[in-house]
Amino acid sequence: MFTSTPRSLHGERPVEQLQTTVMRAELAALIDRMTVVDGAHQTAIPRLLLARASQMQHPVHAIHEPAFCVLAQGSKRVLLGEDVYIYDSSQYLVVAQNLPVSGQVVDASPEAPYLGLRLSFDVKDIAALGLDLQLDAALPNRRSPRGIFTGDLSTTLLDPLLRLTRLLDTPEDVPALAPLITREILYRLLKAPDGWRLAQMAMVDSHSQRIAQAISVLSQRFQQALRVEDLADEVHMSVSSLHQHFKAVTAMSPLQFQKQLRLQESRRIMISENVDAATAGHRVGYESQSQFNREYSRFFGSPPARDVKRLRELELGRGGQT
């Protein structure tokens, strides 16, 4: 579990803390002004998403794409397998792989709403920047890192984040300036103490990069029966090495990963296409309806029909907001 850690007040720390507090307050004010209602809000910057919530939410299961996530106000709990990550306005969260996670807003109220942003990135951007910075030569020889991690949100990261968010007030400047500021943010992340975790995901022939290939294969073929031996051959790893590094990155085995992909997709199908559990289970690769119901209930906490009914009622209660 990751939680925020208080900083010591020595030397210039109080000044830095004051700057950070002022920057967070400005970022919160910007997101508050630009998100009038609860939900996720696309912006004029294609990769930048703003979010608002005025109350604690039920867990949301999703495949989280690579992204840099920051909260200006409130806190959130993210689960990956059995790992728990809790972060607030003092920390950021980086998701460096396509991972099946569960996210839950845990601190929000109408008076002090949860306010956050998500900046998505392409691993190719990390690879290109890492090549320019020659990071492959400087990377420590460590085991494959977890594909998700938190870090302290410093002024060096808040500054470009504020400049990027301010661009939303001058959309004519977005095409020219947003790519430059986004690159600066990625640079700051790579130079942070845990930046090596992100860099390894994009380094050619690294174990992390091969696990990224394995995740891509599973994401495209999760409906099919999985032979781990075939997957290992496809990404040029031994079966034992694949298991070891896959679990290090994703906190689960390839089979567990495939199961989560299947269950999340079945849930999406039932809600968006209004089909029954038997149809959804068959479409995602289950041959046994009883096995599908059993695994769905264990993962989501209730049988398919009851779970989907609850989600639809919640959606109606929010007035269609996502």
UniProtKB/TrEMBL annotation:
Record keywords, A-Z: Transcription, Transcription regulation
Domain HTH araC/xylS-type as annotated: residue spans: 212-310
Superkingdom: Bacteria
Gene3D superfamilies recorded: Homeodomain-like
Record-linked PROSITE patterns: HTH_ARAC_FAMILY_2
Coiled coil in keyword set: no
SMART domains associated with the record: HTH_ARAC
Pfam family, one: AraC_N
Protein known as: AraC family transcriptional regulator
Source organism of this protein record: Variovorax ginsengisoli
